[in-house]
Structure formats: C-alpha cells, structure tokens
Amino acid sequence: MNVKRFTARTSRDALALVRQAFGDDAVVMSTRPCAEGVEVLAMAPESVLQLERVGVPAAEAPRPAAREARAATPRGEPRTEPRLDAKAAPRADASVEHDVEQLQMSTLSFQDYVRERMLKRRRTELAAQAGSGASQDIQILNTALGAELEAIAAYQLGAESKLLQKPVLDLAMTFQGHHKEHADVLAKTVEKLGGKPVLTKSRYNFPVDQLKSQADVLRFAAKLEQGAVSAYLGAVPLFGNRDLAKAAASILGDEAMHWAILRNALGEVPVPSAFMS
Q1: Could you give the domains of the chain?
Q2: Comparison of pLDDT for 68 and 252, the residue scoring more
C-alpha cells in the first residue's frame, strides 16, 4: 500500500506535494501541525482498490478527519472546500493551526471512503448474483414444466387408447389432474419471475406401437413417473430460491407416490429400494 507523509510550511504547499506525488485523485488520510508547519498523510488511489480486493474491514482502516462539511452542503449549492486540483488563494494571516483545521473539515474521511466503496461493490455483486439466480430458477422451472406437460399428454394417450379398465382409467385421470395442477403452478411461477413458460409440444415421441395392453400403458406411465422423480430430485438443490426448492420437493413426493401405485398395479414391489436416485 503506497502511503506517504508530506510536510510543508502551509497546507497549500503540502497539498501541492501530494498532488505532485499521487495525482488529483490522491486520498488524504490525516493532517496535523508539525515542526515544519503542516504534515499530511496521503495515499495513492490505487491503494484503496487493493484494500477493497482484500476486504479490509473499515474498522481496521486508519481514522482520518471526517469530511462533515461535504455531507452538510445542500444539493445544488457549490462546495467551497479545497481540493487537490484547486488553487487555494493565498492568505497572509493564515496560521498553521488554521490550515490544519481547514483540511480536517474538508478532507474526505478515509474510513468512510473505503466503507462506501466496498459497500457499493458488494451491492453490485449481490444484485448480479440475484439476477443470475433468478435466471437459473426459471430455466429449472421450465424444464420441470416441460416434463409435466409431457406427463399430461402421456396420460391422455393412455385414456384414449381404450386399453385401460374402469378403475385403472379413473386412477390415470386422477394422476393426470395432479400433473395439470403442477403445470399450472410452475407456469405461473415462471411468469412471476419474469420468464416465459414453455408450451406443450405439438407431438411427443411416445411408443404408441408398443402399447398393446393395460399393463403396457401402466408400465409406460410408471417409467415417466420414475423419470420425473429423478429429475425433481436433481433439481431441488439447484434452486437459488429456497421456497421454490421446497415446492419442487413437494411435487417430487407426489410423483414418487404415483410411481409406487403404478408399480403396485403392475404387481411389482411398490418401493423397490430405500433410496431414490
């Protein structure tokens, strides 16, 4: 960190030395009277950027004099405090103590300066992360919505196949109703987040020619439900919004029950293992 002390007979001369060493954007950290007249502690502007990168807490930074005059100046009124790039009018009666007092009232607080810069950068980063997280959530929701729309179409295909007997047909229609509710909630959530919900495809690549019996339709539906369970299981931890993750987990539970009931209808073990994958 490039910090130097400058001494001169007057504050104007000291600031001229600071400007000569660090430029007009130099940060004045403190001023005080000394044997030579006025001592100014200043640092190069790039040193502040270094502090921001390493995240130095504001409380650990040197405590310079506060620039209260700047904060107190009403908007629209010209500020009269001296600047490094301004030419101060010479004052024959100005003492060293007066010079120091003027600098203390007009010098930007180093602590406040660093804190303000770091908070601004953090707000920018958080805003970017929030935007990125919402975009990812929309993508996940639309993927889930696409799967729900496919399930709706699959159950419709089974109902129209004339292969399902009355009790099984009623069950299939109940499950289709669940998927319609899922799809409705997912589509509305995507819109609420500023996205565009995906639509039902004009055609799905279903194995129509392989559906010859009720068992074939049930096995086809069970495979879709199993795929939905795995998809939701992988999606839940990816949501940036934890409320969305909770809602997805709720849908996951419903899909898992569908799968178990369909397996049972096929005469298979409803829950084949202790864990889902």
Answers
A1: 3-108 (no CATH), 133-265 (1.20.1260.10)
A2: 252
